[in-house]
Design a protein that fits this description.
single chain, about 475 residues, alpha/beta, eight-stranded mixed beta sheet, 14 helices
Amino acid sequence: MSTTRTLIRGGLVITAADEIHADVLIEDGRIAALAAHGSAAAEAWTADRTIDATNKYVIPGGVDAHTHMELPFGGTSASDSFETGTRAAAWGGTTTIIDFAVQSVGRGLREGLDTWYAKADGNCAIDYAFHMILSDVNQSSLKEMDLLVEEGITSFKLFMAYPGVFYSDDGQILRAMQRSAANGGLIMMHAENGIAIDVLVEQALAEGRTDPRYHGEVRKALLEAEATHRAIQLARVAGAPLYVVHVSAEEAVAELAAARDKGLNVFGETCPQYLFLSTDNLAEPDFEGAKYVCSTPLRPKEHQAALWRGLRTNDLQVVSTDHCPFCFVGQKELGRGDFSKIPNGLPGVENRMDLLHQAVVDGHLTRRRWIEIACATPARMFGLYPKKGTIAPGADADVVIYDPQAEQTLSVETHHMNVDYSAYEGKRITGQVETVLSRGEMVIDRREFTGRAGHGVYTPRSTCQYLS
């Protein structure tokens, strides 16, 4: 149990709505009160533990709404367990993850969900929740969707990509969307035309184009845009909301913007890798490009401006990581000589809050927008707000003391993710997490890990809070 009373003094409290110089009182794992620094109310507070946040930011813990711990993929599994992955998340100022439970083809949703409950239970350093991946849409799994929504699993991911693995056809997608329109769930879509991509993969390999950079070339931006457009129209037909994951292409952002201009409940997420990396990384020599293979793929640099603009104009609302790490040695190497066999995914759960603070430093985002896209909006989108995602009386005391002046260099030498490379090796960042509280319990204390596996608890969710 947390220390009964903790007081955070002298910091700049930043939420999606406000920036205020305030002291924060925490009691029994929750935010009890805020008061202006130096005010009579704040001066009267006493606590068992006082944290000095002078010249620091006091921000809500990050909510990473898209992670894949221990995900089986391409004959191997993501290298981060729930224990190592949530510990790394805490180091990076993230205090809640929403991971993906997977339905196997021919099996029920419940069986998949129970498997993921078992993987996470007792192993997480921070709080966690689940989305459900639908791999097999049929009458039975459609019925199960209703039960999961009641249980607090209120979002369902479908794939227009990966034929033979996760792929759903348009009819299955429409049925799932119709069901979610009725039960209040939110459909999350991996929008890439996987049928067409498979043709291009086959042709590239037949022509001897086997290097990692061809992964980006065959997964064309137009096929992301086409699938995004199609998903939006299917959602309109079903009368359902839609959340498009890991948007990477300018043309896909344009489809989302057009839908939102019509007043549709269509939402978009992007990830740090699309904001900071590009096809230049995929083209690195000596198979190094394999480190950057993920889907949707990294795009040419010119797409980045459209993603930043989308985040500023709210055509993109959330930045998640799609954290799905595979070691370069022994895992990414499975695709030497055939890029289609490289496990898809990048490590990033530890880097997101820092990279987005760097975006503030670089002038891409305001400080409040940083907190909005990394904490508040993901919490609202997936039914965790105001328990998570803000600093307000009654909220869980998931609080980060952030030093905006500290300088650090991202590197495999210093990160805590269980993977043998950093996607951002050598990148210099201004800003660093100093102290992290999860439900009032100190998990990072002045750059030392003081948390434990099993502190994190499963957190059921209400439905999307952007839908009237």
